[in-house]
Amino acid sequence: MTSSEIRQGFFKFFERHGHTIVPSSPVVPFDDPTLLFANAGMNQFKDVFLGQGKRSYTRAADTQKCIRVSGKHNDLEEVGRDTYHHTFFEMLGNWSFGDYYKKEAIRWAWELLTEVWGLPKQRLWATVYKDDEEAEILWKSETDIDPAHVLRFGEKDNFWEMGETGPCGPCSEIHIDRTPGATATGSMVNAGVAEVMEIWNLVFIQYNRDAGGTLHLLPSKHVDTGMGFERMCAVLQKKDSNYDTDVFMPLIQRVAELSRSPYDGRMSGIAESQRELDTAMRVIADHIRTLTFAIADSAIPSNEGRGYVLRRLLRRAARFGRNLGMKEPFLYQLVPTLIDTMGTVFPEIRDKKDHIQKTIRSEEEAFNATLDRGLEIFEQSIKNLGASKAFPGDVAFKLYDTFGFPLDLTELLATERGLRVDVDEFNRRMEEQRRRSRAVDPAVQGGDESIHSANLGRIKESARALETKGLDARFTFVGYDRLDSDGVVLSSSGNLLVLDKTPFYGEAGGQLGDQGELVLEGNRVRVLDTQKSGNINVHILQSPVEAAPGNAVNARVDAARRQAIMRNHTATHLLHAALRHVLGTHVHQAGSLVAPDHLRFDFAHASKVSEDELKAIEDLVNEKIRDGIKLMHHRNIAFEEAKKMGALMFFGDKYGDKVNVIEIGSFSKEFCGGTHVSNTADIGYFKFRSEGSVASGVRRVEAVTSSAAQKLLALQDQSSAERLEYATTQLDELQRQLEELAADKSPVLEETRRATQSLRRRLEDIRQPSHLPQSAGDDLRVHFDRLSQRETQIESFVLELAEKRKLVEKELAKGRIRSQSGRIEDLVTNASPVDGLKVVAAQVEAHSVDELKSLGDTLRSKLGHGVGILAAILDGKVSLVCVVTDDAIKGNKLEAGKIVGAMAKLLGGGGGGKAHLATAGAKDVAGLSRALASAPSIVQSMMAKSGNH
């Protein structure tokens, strides 16, 4: 049974039992700040369990993409070294939201495992919570499991809870006995015995734990189950290791192919050297899965948060690649193999293939640039340790800070040498760096404004965490159609106020919350911000108020501010569509800010956006603004209907049963709950003000609209005019110099050519659409065109002169080589004999490496049977060329690359090449004479090693 058949079999089974098959949520849980990555199937249903959300179905099943590399589930060091630990895995699961409960969950689990998949019943064990008599009775009455195989365990093993408070309940785990002859005993269950492993966990959510620890029965009970897909594949495919299944083997085989290394696969009974090769391949196969799925879901390697987790994994994998002899980027080449095996069930990795590969390759290249130097420092530090077993924490910090070595990579290297890293010293150095950063960063120094911002930040957190349970049904947002309304107080706490209806938009989807004022009992109070707690909008007031539920309130939004935000939000949709149109459909949102004075948009794209591309994007947005397209606001429509419309989903948003869609003609169609203008013409004008990088593979653009865009344009017009005047002056001077040059009055060809190239860059900069004056008159534009024509003519003239100079230089070089022909013959005549070979080693005059190689060719043609080494001083450094005649290569097994490398080593340099000709470079000019004198002994030593002495 293939892994694909196992996954589909799970879906079909639960579909027959009335379950809706739902897609996996992204591994990047953008709507849950408590998680770095999705790590369980229940993550996307957390709001249902907390009573904050609902679905159109009460039964669901899916396979959830999960990543576990930190926190209590962090077993990173075990990945690749045992049979079942992974950083990325799939979790198959089925759920009931207040529908069926323990009886059906237990019966169906047993039916799927034993009747559909045919697992031997005598090998299965079930565990229940010690106080869950109901579950134990159901196991014995609803299935034909051996009653002696139903065991009770305590809270540690068989009680599930989301946190210290909140939904929780007993769970029932299913374990399989994989011992030969099914000889497991009850004492081996939940005891860490590898041959008796858990394959499915059935969680029965029936309690709510309060702050005092008391359990209260929930009015609606839920079922949440999770089955490790990779483990189940190993069981059904009768493999001892998850890595031996068809989930991993295509990747491992591809790694073996790229590295030309054998893979054995056995976990014991093999040589240590083979074990290390196998481990490296398994680690790489695991890590590429995590990297691919995370990047597909908008995560990007960086130095913070989940981005740093990815960077750590990528660098660990790259280092394991070194163990396999792979020094060039290779991880990105594994992505197509993964897509072949998983791209059908997870099409996002196929759709984002180019983006994923570019991101991974870019990271590999960046790390490879420092990896070798970092490894040298690591090795040198070990030599200096003596008998100590502690690797210095300050060196570990240097490797982290300067060479990008994550701490766990240094720990891995140290462990391989039987050492431990002084982590305390590493952490002390890290804290010192943080203190230095805080000392120079005004954003974290304090002051009245910072304190106010910090207080507002804390208040925002309080608003988002405000208890609003039970208020959803009584709350209405009316701000799509009006900016003022009357309502009544539902809840009040200090500076926070909740109304039954409000026109104030709560911050969401990058759009800032509204400001304005409330009139309460005849008193006006300023609204500084509006945040969301669940589906409720919470007003943050400038000062605390005393308000009782039922008090009447008039709410008035700051209309000018809201209008500016609406312009920028609609412009953001136009920008997103234009980016995808110009750069490609791989572009997707990675963050946004919609403020009244500007908009900011982060998006996945591997390279800098060129000036031409920015112009095309900006022009396209402004074209749609000029077209005056009326927006269609589809509100509160069914999610499936919105999908059929082709609405764009992005950035890992969670969508309920009812959604809003903003449609801008045929150009843009997106899920969006924000506020917008009614017509694109209301935006006025769109102008970029910056483009840059915020992380590897993520670009950021900022833009302004309406009057702010016009002001920016005017400033750029003035700047362009000033630069154009300066360029005119420079071009006049350049033309004067060229006229002198043409009259053979000045030897400044190279200087003039460089000046021309510099001016070309200036003119190109001015020519860019973001700089060319919008308001420039015809005279200015005509003048600019004339300058451009002159610049082109001058450049052609300079290039023609440069070509003539190249020809002259070639003739001079040939003359120098001919003039040294007699010197070469003298060197051959006076060559040192070494076992019948002629060995020539001398310093000569040359103006370039190519000229030195030409002299080497001349020497080789005159040697007859021998070795020649020529040296020249170029730019204050030693350049070497070595030549070996054909009969010396064949008869004496000599190679020019090895000989010149040995000589360069004496001078602190290095080099190499082919058997008949090789070059090298070094800095030790003073030692050149001694090195040349050693040539005969080097050749003699090489011959002795090859057995031709």
Architecture blueprint of SSEs:
Elements: H1 3-16, E1 20-21, H2 46-49, E2 59-67, E3 88-97, H3 102-116, E4 124-129, H4 133-142, E5 150-153, H5 155-158, E6 159-161, E7 166-177, E8 196-209, E9 215-228, H6 229-236, H7 249-259, H8 272-296, H9 305-323, H10 335-342, H11 347-351, H12 353-383, E10 390-391, H13 393-403, H14 407-416, E11 420-421, H15 423-440, H16 447-464, E12 476-477, E13 484-493, E14 496-499, E15 501-502, E16 516-520, E17 523-533, E18 536-541, E19 552-557, H17 559-583, E20 589-594, E21 599-604, H18 611-626, E22 631-638, H19 639-645, E23 658-664, E24 668-671, E25 686-695, E26 698-705, H20 706-742, H21 749-767, H22 778-819, H23 821-829, E27 832-834, E28 837-843, H24 849-863, E29 866-874, E30 877-884, H25 886-892, H26 896-906, E31 910-913, E32 917-922, H27 928-933, H28 935-945
Parallel strand pairs: 1-2, 4-5, 10-11, 12-15, 28-29
Antiparallel strand pairs: 2-3, 3-9, 4-7, 6-7, 7-8, 8-9, 13-14, 13-19, 14-18, 16-17, 16-19, 17-18, 20-21, 21-26, 22-23, 23-24, 25-26, 27-28, 29-30, 30-32, 31-32
Helix pairs in contact: 3-4, 7-8, 8-9, 8-12, 9-12, 12-13, 13-15, 17-18, 20-21, 20-22, 21-22, 23-24, 26-28
Helix content: 40-55%
State the shape: globular
- Name of the level-1 CATH class of the largest domain: Alpha Beta
Question: What profile does the largest beta sheet have?
Answer: 9 strands, mixed
Distance N terminus to C terminus? Answer: 63 Å
Low-pLDDT sequence parts: 437-454, 744-748, 767-781
**Share of β-strand residues:** 15-25%
The tally of beta strands, per DSSP, is 32
CATH topology of the largest domain: BirA Bifunctional Protein, domain 2
